[in-house]
């Protein structure tokens, strides 16, 4: 198809560029990183939660945090950067106090995800990948959140807000601006991006049991199975191999 170049919607190299910002990580945080490392047989397996912990301090993955992680794990900064720029949950530009994600994949798109993200751009006065001048909000277009039965779905600091409309999204933002308590549809009370990142690093905040984790259509199959007495088939016992411990 001559005459037509390929333009990717995700062609945003600046979003993964290093921002050359020093880190606010202290010796206390480094001790917590060592604590994370001790959970794994291979220390380098701790890199993912360590990066979440770094984001709980800086709001993104900074150059300083990359160096600290590399030094602690005995790997190169290039290896840490390779991970930090591969997974989209790691930010190389500082996220807002509340990170808003809008799913526009498949069913969410059909059910109004594109209208939602357009509404958020207008409401917040920013584009995808940007943070408001006051640092209150950042906005991201998300890939599938595996919640198609609740489409269209938004997330606030990784917590689900189900079956959203532009009107409901407006009220959600207004409530967050006003500092009102906001509860996720299926999950905990909304805190902040940094607090959520600390939980993802493996430091619970005691909110794991707030709100249902599943509801509605997600449980329809389970309810039908219970009504009809359906059960999973028994798993046949595997014969023991001679000399193998039981």
Give a written overview of the molecule:
Strands 2-1-3-4 form a four-stranded mixed beta sheet, with helices on one face. A hairpin with a 2-residue loop joins strand 3 and strand 4 (159-161). The longest helix is centred in the N-terminal third of the chain and has 12 residues, at 47-58. The chain has helices at 27-37, 47-58, 63-73, 77-84, 106-110, 113-124, 166-177, 193-200, 220-228, and strands at 98-103, 137-142, 154-156, 159-161. It contains nine helices and four strands, in the order ααααβααβββααα. It is flat, with a radius of gyration of 21 Å. Helix 1 (27-37) packs across helix 3 (63-73) and helix 6 packs parallel to helix 7. It is of the alpha+beta class. Residues 1-17 have low confidence and may be disordered. Among the domains are: 13-84, no CATH class; 98-193, Glutaredoxin. The protein starts with 26 loop residues before the first helix and ends in an 18-residue tail after the last helix.
């Amino acid at each position: 198809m001559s005459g037509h170049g390929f333009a990717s919607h995700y062609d945003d190299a600046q979003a993964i560029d290093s921002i050359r910002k020093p880190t606010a990580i202290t010796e206390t945080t480094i001790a917590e990183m060592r604590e994370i490392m001790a959970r794994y047989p291979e220390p380098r397996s701790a890199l993912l939660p360590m990066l979440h912990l770094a984001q709980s301090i800086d709001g993104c993955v900074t150059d300083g945090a990359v160096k600290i992680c590399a030094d602690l794990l005995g790997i190169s900064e290039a290896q840490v950067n390779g991970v930090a720029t591969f997974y989209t949950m790691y930010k190389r530009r500082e996220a807002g106090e509340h990170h808003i994600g809008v799913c526009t994949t498949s069913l969410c798109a059909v059910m109004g995800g594109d209208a939602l993200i357009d509404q958020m751009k207008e409401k917040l006065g920013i584009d995808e990948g940007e943070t408001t001048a006051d640092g209150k909000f950042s906005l991201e277009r998300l890939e599938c959140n595996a919640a198609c039965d609740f489409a269209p779905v938004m997330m606030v600091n990784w917590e689900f807000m189900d079956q959203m409309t532009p009107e409901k999204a407006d009220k959600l933002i207004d409530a967050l601006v006003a500092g009102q308590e906001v509860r996720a549809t299926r999950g905990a009370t909304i805190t902040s991006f940094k607090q959520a990142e600390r939980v993802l690093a493996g430091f619970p905040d005691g909110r794991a049991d707030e709100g249902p984790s599943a509801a509605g259509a997600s449980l329809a199959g389970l309810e039908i199975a219970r009504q009809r007495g359906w059960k999973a088939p028994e798993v046949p016992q595997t014969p023991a191999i001679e000399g193998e411990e039981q």
